[in-house]
Design a protein that fits this description.
Rossmann fold, globular, 6-stranded parallel sheet, alpha/beta, 5-stranded mixed sheet, about 675 residues, Dna Topoisomerase Vi A Subunit, Chain: A, domain 2
Length: about 675
């Protein structure tokens, strides 16, 4: 296999770093990798797949011996060094906008116009991000009939402004959560929890420079110089992934069925690679941003070391979810035993305890109040966990935090342990006749009686906790039933109205959340990339819980047998998947556990060793895991559960869905409802 010497101009920036990751992910045949950057970074080293590559200062001589140079720098840098790159005999693939509209430079999207590469003269330009997103989606329709008009609205993430834009969003979210003012530097206005309806300066007839990019670049790539384009670009407080809504008119009418066929073919062709790439990018980002802090190596955000305020959460997944919301000063305790690192930090910084809205969160708070200085308390909504909250919910919870002393008083908590309470009782003034006995050695009978009282108090506390847990579970089930009844009724009503008012011959049926009408010669299309603020699993669960499956209609000539169905959370679930006997066994176990919030722990022979509550699953595995081969539970498969399972040698983990998982164990088989139903 031929190897290519590859240079990256602007290797230390966010775009340059992503380019190196993609080269590794795609297994591109790289011989020499030469990172090229400013004099400030020259001489330092960058890791590339285990190879240490020394950064070279950008100069006219820096490109000798290279076959390909990937441009990840600004326009002025690209224009400055492009002649030297071409002179050195390398092909310059530039990511800036410097050469996009140059008639001598091909502007290429590989999925649309790869043939344009053939006429390059040493420089190939890469289009604007929103242009790529839009044109890849609509190209399927453009092949069928030329596009005459495009009306588009883009909602662009802060990543479009580079690493500085991402950092500014993180900093503003953290500042607002701490009640501090924000000072915009990268953007014109505050971007956190705001939308800025302008990207770039005014360029032509009221359109901004960013809006003109889609217009001019689209015409060049599609080879449609007469195509009319009107675009509006807005900046939104999302870290990565742009969204674009498009209304287009084709020269010739495209039937509804044909349009659906073209779009489905596009989705099938791109599904596999895009999903894998998206997952890998997300995981790499999570792994890079989360760190460890202190001698106890507590999972923490990158700003914990120098932030004046910290947010104390339960586990690693909570830190990851706060990072996704732009909050970088969280640190995890990883259980009810509070590490000394967290104890010391709480005395030095302004500490906010942010815990789950269940009994587990309350237990962690009790322990924190005993050993740490908690200034403020924030709780997730009742029966919810911090790791499953959206960014909006996280900020709302932190804004509604209350002083620690006030929370203790309102909830009858105390910072003293049982032993401290006993000492206080002993220090109370005693009658004069017994004062001389206060410091006497306790008798053996008294010690036994004391232990018995403590045991009774513990048993009473456990009974109260179990009672509260049952009540919480009952409340959740009642809320779910009400939601199911409402959703089913609302959807049925919508479908009846839709059937009555809409002519299906003129409608392209897109997903329900993105459905729009089409008229002859005009197609309405919604183009969306994967949202960055909401996890995929949450969207999938919402769709599953709100979808209504139509009843099968029998044919007049022959009565067809009905598919076997199982009940899942009050819904019908029909499975057409071919499952192994082992998968069928775990599917049945998962169905049996539905809505129970329990877990079953199985041995190597497939027999159930014991059944526990999901919230106690981790502790149960830690305390006793001998002979455990697999676990199945009615809950989210979290990173914490996978880590414990890997440590204990568990082979199979089955849950309802995957949570925020940054490190997938290689020796564990993971199945979810999506795999088994």
């Amino acid at each position: 296999m031929k190897l290519y010497n590859v240079g990256i101009l602007g290797a230390t920036g966010a775009v340059g770093q992503e380019m190196m990751k993609i080269l590794l992910e795609r297994k591109f045949p790289v011989g020499e990798l030469r990172p090229i950057a400013s004099a400030r970074s020259a001489g330092s080293e960058i890791d590339f797949g285990g190879r240490k590559c020394t950064i070279v200062e950008a100069s006219d001589d820096a490109f000798e011996g290279l076959d390909i140079v990937l441009g990840a720098a600004e326009n002025d840098i690209a224009e400055r060094f492009a002649p030297a790159i071409v002179k050195a005999g390398a092909v310059f693939v530039d990511n800036s906008s410097a050469f996009r509209l140059d008639p001598k430079v091909p502007l290429v999207i590989p999925e649309i116009n790869p043939e344009d590469v053939k006429w390059h003269s040493g420089i190939i330009s890469n289009p604007n991000c929103t242009t790529i997103v839009t044109l890849v989606a609509i190209n399927a329709l453009a092949k069928e009939s030329p596009i005459e008009t495009i009306i588009a609205s883009s909602y662009q993430a802060v990543s479009g402004a580079g690493k500085n834009g991402i950092d500014e969003l993180h900093d503003e979210v953290a500042a607002l959560a701490a009640g501090k003012p924000v000072e915009p530097k990268v953007f014109q206005y505050q971007i956190a929890y705001n939308v800025i309806p302008q990207i770039g300066g005014e360029a032509y007839m009221g359109y901004t420079s960013e809006e003109m990019k889609m217009q001019n670049e689209g015409r060049k790539i599609l080879h449609l110089p007469e195509m009319k384009v009107s675009c509006t670009c807005a900046r939104v407080p999302v870290i990565r992934s742009h969204s674009v809504s498009v209304v287009l008119r084709t020269k010739e009418k495209i039937s509804v069925e044909r349009a659906k066929e073209l779009l489905n073919e596009l989705i099938k062709q791109s599904k596999g690679s895009s999903v894998d790439l998206t997952d890998s990018v997300r995981q790499s980002v999570q792994v890079e941003e989360i760190t460890t802090y202190g001698k106890d190596r507590c999972p923490a955000g990158p700003n914990v070391s120098d932030s004046e305020a910290i947010i104390i959460v339960e586990g690693r997944s909570d830190v990851l979810n706060l990072l996704k919301a732009g909050i970088k000063n969280a640190i995890a305790v990883e259980g009810t035993n509070i590490p000394k690192t967290v104890q010391d930090l709480s005395r030095e910084r302004v500490a906010t305890a942010f815990v789950d809205g269940d009994r587990g969160g309350e237990l962690i708070l009790r322990e924190l109040f005993q050993v740490a200085d908690v200034d403020f308390v924030a709780r997730a909504p009742r029966a919810h966990e911090v790791e499953e909250l959206t960014a909006k919910q996280i900020v709302k919870c932190l804004r509604n935090k209350m002083p620690g002393d006030q929370y203790m008083e309102m909830n009858g908590l105390t910072a003293s342990s049982d032993e401290d309470e006993e000492e206080e009782k002993e220090e109370k003034p005693a009658p004069e006749i017994h004062r001389e006995l206060r410091h006497a050695e306790p008798r053996e009978d008294d010690s036994e009686e004391h232990e018995e009282r403590r045991r009774e108090r513990k048993e009473k506390k456990d009974r109260e906790e179990r009672k509260r847990d049952r009540k919480d579970r009952k409340d959740r089930e009642e809320r779910r039933e009400k939601k199911d009844r409402f959703d089913s009724g609302a959807i049925d009503k919508f479908r009846k109205k839709e059937d009555k008012d809409v002519d299906t011959d003129d409608v392209i049926e897109l997903p329900a959340a993105e459905r729009s009408l089409a008229v002859p010669g005009e197609t309405h299309l919604m183009v969306r990339e994967e949202p960055a603020a909401e996890p995929e699993a949450v969207v999938e669960e919402f769709i599953e819980e709100t979808a209504v499956e139509p009843e099968p209609v029998a044919e007049p000539e022959e009565e067809k047998p009905k598919a076997k169905t199982r009940t899942l959370r009050g819904k019908r679930s029909t499975s057409n998947k071919t499952l192994s006997p082992e998968q069928e066994k775990f599917r049945d176990l998962l169905l049996d556990l539905s809505t129970t919030h329990n877990a079953k722990i199985l041995g190597a022979d497939g027999q159930v060793l014991r059944e526990v509550a999901v919230k106690s699953l981790v502790n149960s595995l830690k305390e006793e895991s001998e002979g455990v081969d697999s676990i199945v539970f009615d809950g989210v498969i979290s990173q914490r559960i996978l880590d414990v399972s890997a440590d204990k040698g568990i082979k199979i983990v089955v849950g309802t869905r995957k949570g925020n998982i940054s490190k997938m164990p290689a020796d564990i088989v993971i199945w979810t409802k999506e795999d088994l139903y």
